Amino acid sequence: MHEESALLEFNCCNCKLPLSENLLSSISRSKEWFRQAAHSDKVYLSKLFNLKYSIEGHDHIPYARFQNGDIAYFCILICQNCNSTNIAVIEFYEMQPARYIAKLQGLTVCDETNENT
Ligand SMILES: [Zn+2]
User: Fold this and answer.
1) Quick one: which of 15, 36, 84, 92 has the fewest CB in 10 Å?
2) Ligand 1 center to residue 20 CA distance, Å?
3) How much is the pTM?
4) CA angle 54, 59, 64 (to 5 degrees)
């Protein structure tokens, strides 16, 4: 399988509708939404996923690290059915030269009612 065609697939945390998106384009979109997220939201996500809170990749795609030091990327998928915002944390690394491994390590859904607090 080529990493360019790798799919991120899981069921919506709210309504269970299957969601899927190209993994790399989903990761690269965190350049926009994750950067714009409030500091408190980033800290919250890091705690939720048990990450070390240190956002790296300042000039490119932001990422944090798992407790073991592995890189954690964030993906966001909006459910077309219930409009929930699903956030996934992905472990993504190069296992051998040009061989990449991506693992879905965590999933959460944003509670819209907390957005303005
Ligand atoms: Zn849904």
Assistant:
1) 36
2) 12
3) 0.85
4) 25
